[in-house]
Amino acid sequence: MPDLFTFFGLISHDKVFIYMTHMLLSAGLALVLVRSAMSNLQLVPKGTQNLMEAYINGILQMGTDVMGKENARRFVPLIATIGLFVAIANLIGIVPGFEAPSAFLEFALTLAITVFVYYNYIGIKEQGVIKYFKHFLGPVWWLYWLMFPIEIVSHISRLVSLSFRLFGNVKGDDMFLMVILMLAPWLLPMIPFALLTFMALLQAFIFMMLTTVYIGSAIAVEDH
């Protein structure tokens, strides 16, 4: 099966170049969208401002359910940025001539490592090193020796869960789109495009939701 056609591929077929250009394009589109929403703020929002306010309110509500209102407001810039970036990175892959940067493992793994390092850093900062890692030991003292390595493996597996879920689903969507366009190159397949759009937004939401849960669990560690 041939590679996906991309406009940037006309300049160079190098995979690193294709990945970097599409990643920078995604980041640029995210900045333009945010800039557009903030360029003319109004008391009664409309257009892009209305869309972004609905998006932020949704994240605040989700974060409030997980970690409380105060912490939700504290971490909303990070979570909203991740969600918007991943959503745009997924969506541009649906447009013929572009490839989703999230279909590259480097993209998904880098984001997963960033989230992993950040939530552990926040957990240690909020709870202290001893109290944070004491949570890994579990409630039963004579099972400390067993629970600690299990918890370590469980946390490391989150890297796999975050990265490979995003990469695998988006890569699969790209392959599905390529097959559809090969079978119907002159007829816009509206139903598959609608399905791919939904899946792109769903994967961004899942990544954002898991980030929220991981941060919430890191700052809510309690003594057993």
Please render the helix and strand layout as text.
Layout: H1 15-38, H2 48-67, H3 69-91, H4 105-127, H5 129-134, H6 144-183, H7 190-219
Instruction: Please tally the β strands and state the result.
Output: 0
Tell me, briefly, the overall form: globular
How much helix is in the residues? Answer: over 70%
Low-confidence stretches: none
Largest sheet: none
Any idea what the radius of gyration is?
Answer: 20 Å
| Oligomeric state of the chains present here | single chain
* Fraction of residues in β-strands: under 5%
* Number of H/I helices: 7
Overall pLDDT metric: 86
Order of helices and strands: HHHHHHH
Q: What is the number of independent domains?
A: 1
Overall structural class, as computed from helix and strand content, comes to mainly alpha
Question: What is the CA-CA span between the terminal residues?
Answer: 55 Å
Briefly say what this structure is.
The protein has 224 residues and is mainly α. It contains seven helices and no strands.
